[in-house]
Write a structure and sequence with these properties.
Blueprint: E1 3-7, E2 10-12, E3 18-25, E4 33-39, E5 46-52, E6 57-59, E7 67-72, E8 77-82, E9 91-99, E10 102-105, E11 109-113
Parallel strand pairs: 2-11
Antiparallel strand pairs: 1-3, 3-8, 4-5, 4-9, 5-6, 7-8, 9-10, 9-11
Length: 115
């Protein structure tokens, strides 16, 4: 049974940085894709970033060079380095992983950007 556990969220001031981590367990194979999504109150969940098993990355338009997704395929971990955070980045951030059997979600970690 695949489990994803996010960590690293918290309260940060505008302009600050956070690094989110997602630890995946229960799979002996490297995931095809690992993604970060976010959902702000009253809004739909949106894709933040995705990284393939080969290391290719893609980001939501709102990221604008501020975030970096990376992964450790040997450990099945994925990271999201977030810099220059803005109040509008406040949301619950979710880890998502996909393999041949389906897609899996973590429980989310809260990121709050406020002074």
């Amino acid at each position: 049974q695949v489990q994803l556990v996010e960590s690293g969220g918290g309260l940060v001031q505008p302009g600050g940085s956070l690094r989110l981590s997602c630890a995946a367990s229960g799979s002996t194979l490297s995931f095809w894709y690992m993604r970060w999504y976010r959902q702000a109150p009253g809004k739909q969940r949106e894709l933040v970033a995705v990284i393939s098993s080969g290391g290719s990355t893609s980001y939501g338009d709102f990221v604008k060079g501020r975030f970096t997704i990376s992964r450790d395929s040997a450990k099945n971990w994925v990271y999201l380095q977030m810099n220059s955070l803005k109040p509008e980045d406040t949301a619950v951030y979710y880890c998502n992983a996909e393999d041949y059997a389906g897609a899996y979600w973590g429980q989310g970690t809260q990121v709050t950007v406020s002074s």
